[in-house]
Design goal:
By secondary structure, the protein is α/β, with parallel strands linked by helices. It has a single domain, classed as Rossmann fold (3-Layer(aba) Sandwich), CATH 3.40.50. The chain is built from twelve helices and seven strands. It has helices at residues 2-27, 30-46, 68-72, 75-80, 82-88, 90-97, 110-120, 153-164, 182-186, 200-213, 244-257, 310-320; strands spanning 100-104, 124-128, 169-173, 192-195, 217-220, 232-236, 264-268. The protein has a seven-stranded mixed beta sheet with strand order 3-2-1-4-5-7-6, sandwiched between helices. The longest helix has 26 residues, at 2-27. The chain is globular. It holds the Pfam family ThiF. One of its GO terms (cellular component) is plastid. Its main location: mitochondrion. It comes from Carya illinoinensis. Belongs to the HesA/MoeB/ThiF family.
Length: 333
């Protein structure tokens, strides 16, 4: 009965949100609405283009970053982010809009994180993933549709993002993070790096590089077969518990790089509720999943994940606007 009540409340909330959105659009000044239509038509006429709709694209160095104040002077952008501005204040939203965030790993976690950062008004995003959208991606990817199957995940997000917040400069890189790509990905002094990688070797290498470069990084750890959002925590890596991935990362960082904590991670206290079934190949016989890996060490099968880590997004956005959270571990059940 409690579950039914909970689902009813969620449904009511979704309905109320939809009605509110329609109501707000009805109140939108006609002049602003016409500008939105003209801008949308301009984008559709030209197709997917690099940079953004009003020329706020940046070249890639710190001096050329999007100016948060200038961007928020745009009437359409200001209206789109009005709820953020009302809650955070104009000065804090300016900091968010002037921020540059790198998101590495664009699957069930990274795609949602990138999408919410975009909707929060982050002015510049670098999206990195070597993989493509597959049919099995559609149960957890933030924006992908069947029409996107076969398209690189980074490019898929970039194209969808253009219709959501075209003023954001989105750079898509279809590549695998490793030592050879470190400079390409981490140069430009990003305000934050979001690690949404599920391969331990790549994850450890990225975190170590961020520590060495003095970059702020937030790491998402394992959440497969977990579904309780109340058990999600943001804490220092050395304080994470009940998560095999964070435990392995912690061990490797200490052993290979002498890094003992100091990295905020998002993890779940919940114990997994399911295990993977035996892997069967095309013949129907049980086979070794590693034989089907495109890249050594990367997963072949995925079990349901939490996807959008709202705690992580709020934590990082708070840092961007100059109001960082204090890391603490809340273990009370």
């Amino acid at each position: 009965m409690e579950r039914v009540k909970y689902l009813a409340l969620v449904g009511a909330g979704v309905l109320l949100g939809s009605v509110s959105t329609v109501f707000i659009l009805k109140l939108l000044p006609r002049r602003v609405a016409r500008q939105c239509t003209k801008k949308a038509n301009k984008i559709h006429d030209k197709g997917i283009v690099s940079g953004n709709a009003k020329g706020y694209a940046v070249a890639g160095n710190q001096n050329d970053r999007v100016a948060g104040l200038d961007l928020l002077k745009d009437e359409i952008v200001s209206e789109q982010l009005t709820r953020n501005i009302q809650f955070f204040g104009l000065e804090s939203q300016q900091k968010v809009t002037a921020s540059y965030v790198v998101v590495i790993g664009l699957g069930g976690v990274g795609s949602h994180a990138a999408a919410m950062l975009l909707r929060s008004g982050v002015g510049r995003l670098l999206l990195v993933d070597f993989d493509q959208v597959s049919l099995s991606s559609l149960n957890r990817h933030a924006v992908a549709t069947r029409a996107d199957v076969g398209i690189p995940k980074a490019q898929c997000l970039k194209e969808h993002f253009l219709s959501i917040f075209p003023e954001c400069h989105v750079d898509a890189r279809v590549l695998l993070y490793d030592a050879s790509s470190e400079e390409e990905i981490l140069s430009g002094n990003p305000d934050y790096v979001l690690d949404c990688i599920d391969n331990i070797d790549t994850k450890v290498a990225l975190l170590a590089a961020c520590v060495r470069r003095g970059l702020k990084v937030l790491s998402a750890t394992g959440a497969g077969a977990r579904a309780d959002p109340t058990r999600i925590r943001v804490a220092d890596l050395k304080e994470s518990t009940n998560d095999p991935l964070s435990r392995a990362v912690r061990h490797r960082l200490r052993k290979d790089y002498g890094i003992d904590g100091g990295i905020p991670v998002v993890f779940s206290l919940e114990k997994p509720k399911a295990k993977l079934l035996p892997f069967k190949g095309p013949s129907g016989e049980e086979e070794n999943p590693s034989d089907y890996q495109i890249v050594p060490g990367f997963r072949v099968r995925i079990i349901p994940v939490l996807g959008c880590f709202i705690n992580a997004l709020l934590s990082m956005r708070s840092h961007c606007m100059g109001q960082p959270w204090k890391l603490r571990l809340m273990l009370k059940k």
